[in-house]
Amino acid sequence: MVSAKFARNVVGIVGNVISFGLFLSPVPTFYRIITKKAVEEFSPVPYISTVLNCMFWIFYGMPFVHPDSLLVVTINSVGLALELIYLAIFYAYAAEQKNGRKKVLIGLAGEVVFVVLIVLITMLALHTHKNRSMIVGIICDIFNIMMYVSPLTVMKQVITTKSVKYMPFSLSLANFLNGCVWTAYALIKFDIYILVSNGIGAVSGAAQLILYAVYYRTTPKDDDDDVPQKPSNVQLSNA
């Protein structure tokens, strides 16, 4: 019989693969930035936010905070590296965007100070895995839930325009699968903090797929000239 630990590791590896794909989703955006040598109207805020999210999940997965969470650390370490690369590219080509480079520097500096403060409080004031997991887990969930606001704005646009043009099916499906896999991971060895944020992610992904099914047929096939192109700032978060 397959042990719970083995099943959890397998599910976690699958979750790492799916999450890695989501972390790569901004690549076309930054390919466009490099090609045009300008950031145009793109905002660095989603990527700065994801850096903070990844740093807290890495801290959460440390053995001295929440033991046996190596797969949480691995994917968020990869995600953190990718987000910093994205921001480096943004910074390099943000010369013409007003306050673009300043946003990146101030945002990252503020995040580092905030994370260091939380790490110090956690390590010096809390002395058990349970208490450390609770505080850091709650912080992780708060920021993860806040990041799900971005897809909600896209979903509202779909309902208003009756068009799924700006909600790619592949991204919605990946978001749903990512939430489901990490929810299963959290249930095999119960982890309320991973469960909460990814349970909401699974529901969000399911809602996007339902909207896609409802409005796919009403999406104009030749609306490229009718609907103004707007750079997407949606950045999905992962456990």
Task: Explain what you see.
The structure is a single chain. By secondary structure, the protein is mostly helical. Helices cover 72% and strands 0% of the residues. The chain contains nine helices and no strands. Mean pLDDT is 88; it is low at 223-237.
Q: Any key phrases for this structure?
A:
9 helices; globular
What multimeric state do the chains show?
single chain
Assign a percent range to the helix content: over 70%
Beta strand %: under 5%
Shape: globular
Structural class: mainly alpha
Number of helices: 9
Count of beta strands = 0
Q: What pattern of helices and strands is seen along the backbone?
A: HHHHHHHHH
Mean pLDDT: 88
User: For the report, how would you describe the main beta sheet?
Assistant: none
Task: Flag low-confidence runs.
Answer: 223-237
Q: Could you give a quick summary of the protein structure above?
A:
This protein is an all-alpha fold. The chain has 9 helices and no strands. The longest helix is centred in the middle third of the chain and has 26 residues, at 100-125.
